[in-house]
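Bug #2210: token dump truncated for Large ribosomal subunit protein uL4?
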Amino acid sequence: MKLKVIDINNKPQGEIELDDTTFNDIFGRPVRKDILARVVNWQLAKRRAGTHKTKEIGDVSGTTKKPYSQKGTGRARQGSLRSPQFRGGATIFGPVVRSHAHDLPKKVRTLGLKTALSAKAKEGKLVVLDGVGPDAKTKDVAKKFAALGWKSVLLIEGKAVTEGFARAARNIPHVDVLPQQGANVYDILRRDTLVLTRDAVQHLVERLK
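Reproduced locally. Full output below:
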């Protein structure tokens, strides 16, 4: 199979040829929403701070004195005014500080990335770029993206991003630039168009095949 390559000015720059097995394994898989959902949930769970907390009885400030006698008042027995049934008292079974991260098998994570790439290829929203060029002005990059019709873009480069281009692109709304190592399911799905450079395609093929 062949992937057409263009430059930043939308001019053809040849093709990248992949054998059928590699192409079908990475860019031609059936779209499995269950796998994508598992990987996205795993990613977002890892990002959660988990710093939420409510006050338990030991955290509530106040007297430790028993409110009134155990017997003889005709009222229900009480041991503390800091108990949850009183206003300003503790919260029962509230959230505590914890990590929300959970495990996900490496094979599922790899399959998720392949499925996300295949989904973009199937929708016709996968573009292979010859290179980003030396542009370091936000205005110039924005004009070129507008000419290409890219409004929501994830651009993945090779081992490292081109610093000047990345600096210019990060000022444009809905545009992300990542190195190949940073390619992930959530960022691929949250942007409308996925743009890979030649280097990114080679690195991803080596990483995923």
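Output looks complete on our side. Residues 130 and 181 are 19 Å apart (CA to CA). Marking as cannot-reproduce; reopen if the truncation happens again.
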